[in-house]
Design brief:
The chain is of the alpha+beta class and 738 residues long. Helix content is 27%, strand content 22%. The chain contains 18 helices and 28 strands. The strands form 7 sheets. The chain has a 7-stranded mixed sheet with strand order 10-11-8-18-15-16-17. Strands 13-21-20-19-14 form a 5-stranded mixed sheet.
């Protein structure tokens, strides 16, 4: 299904009627004319409200329908359902009447970030906003109850709200949210807003269905950014210099202008050329006819081999940034009875979102608007303002459904900037920019390349006395957020995810002498936040080496871990859960071998245990994976199960199949024929165990879980074959998943 939009700002509301009365724990939306255009089934567009501003999170309509404002992005992970659950839990409304809307980032800018962060990444969608989101629901409930109490002339303390109905307990009188919504809207927002004890939750923790629905997604009716249509819209596609850092030297558009449907050929920035046409196919065909001469620059001499050589030098370099340290590692190694060493390699990886990068923009001297599939509406707005040349009050961004994110559509808004730059060259015309798959894969912001040297010292009693971990590779933050690196005296703290001394990425092992450091070796290939980010490779490095140490010291792999995890009871709990779930202490079926791994990152404790078999020495069949996750609190268990399984698809694809390589300064892989993903038939059964450790810490789900599947598989593969695999992807070692 295609949604067609009237681009007039005053007539941009679709799919809903004006909300004339009711409680708006929100604001007057007269500024916002298009915040929810083209969202598809499950959302409603915002209409002007006549009610006073008394908060930001909830609208209650006269018919008791509840609209929850949500600013985090939905990419299939279920964040908007979880956020709505938290609001509805405190609001005490009827869940069947709940829907959601996306406020515009421009309105948030005017309101001084009334909704908090728009960024959806780092598994922060729920865990870093749960407190103020829940308070939004609780405040609305208190105001509704107070309004009812005022009408009855009774104390509010004698009234309760359940399923959108307010009851005066002593008399039994009842009313609904909708009937008192106008009166409630005239009350002050309370400042003292107590929240429910988790023991009282009735909706949080329940596997409710997603409020964004699933039927339209599976039938193809869901409108994503790539599907967007507007009257008078034209379509553009783009070609950038294949070598990162290169520029356009010259181009000849004569042949392209003769292609059917082509309207214009334009340069975009200093490194790209775009063709604008009536359809994507005509634009793509025209672009193929543009004769472009590139100035590739010095980076054209870079290759994967030269990058790896640089990383290898970093493994033994004297200078490195220390992430975690205790004791005296050098003394431990000097006094050791035995030492061990292992070297690992992890490649660049592309996000490879199913929907390639796309955005639609319309520019006039009076207004610039963009419709963007974004993980961060505020970042998109900032990019639009910078590119438009207009003041902020003349700019706005409207969020459109994302066809995948994984970190690509948050901090990086190159596609938004390009769409605006193209639209500026055809003022007044909506231009939808669509990258080809080849462009998407060769101009990504890639998972950083990394090598690691693990080494350990062992005494005469087979005790591990020292552990040294040297990371050598690229820094994401040095490229993306250099101010963070500068404030850390040149160190990238994100490189140590899962290895920090303390905090949400703290290591969960204790050794008497420990040193973990990073020799920063940056390349011309732009790095980015790729689902799970640095914990992916760090888990492989650490957890496979833990297995090697267990074997060398003569201990069972699980028992060895427990021995060094005594200071981290929640980590032991998830480890024990997967060990019990896989039947670790019981004999496996003949020909089946087991592996285990655990990690702490993004505030969550996770572990995995797998069973696999190997035929012909290289054909791996993973029969099942048992996964345990302790995120502190589980808002929607059903969605957590899906997140865990989905993250394992991503992690196992990277382990077996995926890599980005460089030749002559450019990316070699251009499509899914060379950057493969595992298929449904290869995917093992995933059994998810959810543990709620509670406390003050709320952990993530989508990013921490991805890391543990790969090392668990590698450890099981060793038990099956006696072969230690330390280079990813495994296809380069002749190993394939069947």
């Amino acid at each position: 299904m295609t949604t067609t939009i009237n681009t007039s700002r005053r007539h941009f509301v679709i799919g809903s009627s004006a909300i004339a009365t009711g409680l708006a724990i929100g604001f007057d939306f007269t500024f916002m004319s298009a915040a929810n255009a083209a969202m598809g089934t499950g959302t409603t567009a915002m209409a002007p409200l006549s009610t006073p501003e008394i908060g930001v999170w909830v609208v209650v309509k006269p018919n008791d329908d509840v609209v929850v404002r949500i600013v985090r992005s939905e990419m299939g992970q279920g964040t908007i359902t979880g956020l709505a659950q938290m609001v509805a839990e405190e609001l005490q409304c009827d869940w069947k009447k709940v829907s959601y809307e996306y406020p515009s980032p421009a309105e948030s800018l005017l309101r001084k970030q009334a909704w908090g962060s728009y960024s959806t990444g780092g598994s922060r969608g729920i865990r870093t906003s749960e407190q103020y989101v829940r308070k939004g629901g609780a405040a609305a409930r208190m105001m509704l109850i107070q309004a009812a109490a005022n009408q009855w002339n009774v104390p509010a303390s004698e009234c309760v709200a359940v399923d959108s109905v307010i009851t005066h307990t002593p008399s039994g009188r009842k009313t609904t949210f909708g009937k008192v919504s106008v009166a409630a809207s005239q009350l002050p927002v309370p400042t003292d807003i107590p929240l429910k004890d988790p023991k009282e939750w009735k909706l949080i923790g329940k596997p409710v269905n997603r409020i964004d629905g699933t039927s339209d997604k599976v039938t193809g009716r869901q409108v994503y950014a790539i599907d967007l249509k507007m009257p008078g819209m034209l379509v553009a596609t783009i070609k950038q210099c294949p070598v990162f850092g290169g520029k356009v030297k010259a181009y000849d558009s004569a042949k392209a202008m003769n292609v059917k449907g082509v309207k214009k050929v334009v340069q975009v920035g200093d490194n790209a050329v775009a063709v604008i046409a009536d359809t994507f196919w005509h634009a793509k065909t025209g672009l193929e006819q543009v004769n472009i001469t590139w100035d590739e620059g010095a980076n054209a001499a870079v290759s994967s081999a030269s990058i790896k050589k640089n990383l290898e030098e970093g493994l033994t370099a004297d200078d490195a940034f220390v992430g975690s340290a205790n004791g005296d590692v050098k003394a431990a190694f000097a006094n050791a009875s035995k030492t061990m060493e292992a070297t690992y390699f992890y490649p660049f990886l592309s996000h490879a979102t199913l929907e390639p990068q796309t955005a639609t923009a319309k520019w006039t001297p009076e207004m610039c608007e963009a419709w963007v599939p974004t993980q961060d509406g505020e970042a998109s707005l900032a990019a639009l303002i910078a590119a438009s040349g207009l003041p902020a009050e003349k700019c706005n961004v409207y969020k459109v459904n994302l066809g995948g994110g994984f970190g690509r559509r948050g901090a990086f808004q190159d596609f938004t900037t390009q769409a605006v730059n193209i639209a500026k060259q055809m003022p007044g015309t909506p231009i939808k920019l669509i990258w080809t798959r080849e462009e998407d894969m060769t101009h990504d912001h890639y998972h950083p390349v990394m090598m690691c040297k693990m080494s350990a010292s062992i005494d005469s009693k087979k005790n591990v006395t020292g552990l040294n971990m040297r990371l050598s590779g690229q820094s994401i933050l040095a490229a993306v957020r250099p101010a963070v690196v500068a404030s850390n005296k040149g160190k990238d703290p994100a490189a140590f995810q899962g290895l920090d001394e303390t905090g949400e990425h703290g290591i969960t092992y204790t050794f008497p002498n420990l040193n973990i450091d990073h020799a920063m070796r940056n390349t011309h290939v732009p790095p980015g936040f790729w689902r799970g980010v640095n914990v992916n490779q760090n888990a492989i490095f650490l957890e496979t080496f833990m297995d090697e140490l267990a074997e060398t010291t003569g201990m069972d792999a699980v028992e060895f871990r427990r021995k060094h995890m005594q200071d981290y009871p929640r980590a032991i709990t998830v480890l024990n859960a997967v060990a019990d779930g896989i039947g670790w202490t019981k004999p496996a079926t003949p020909g089946v071998f087991r592996g285990v791994a655990q990690m702490h990152s993004y505030g969550s404790y996770v572990a995995a245990a797998c069973e696999l078999s190997v035929k012909n020495g290289n054909e791996v069949k993973i029969h099942r994976i048992v996964a345990a996750t302790d995120p502190g609190y589980a808002v929607n268990p059903a969605q957590i199960e899906r997140q865990v399984a989905g993250s394992f698809v991503y992690g196992l694809s990277a382990l077996f199949e995926e890599e980005i390589t460089i030749e002559n300064g450019a990316v070699v892989q251009k499509n899914f024929d060379t950057f493969n993903s595992i298929r449904l038939s290869q995917m093992p059964k995933v059994e998810t165990i959810i543990i709620q450790g509670g406390g003050k810490e709320w952990g993530g789900v989508g990013e921490p879980t991805i890391a543990v599947a790969a090392p668990a598989v590698l450890n099981a593969f060793y038990r099956a074959t006696g072969q230690r695999l330390r280079t990813v992807p495994l296809k380069n070692s002749g190993i394939k998943l069947v």
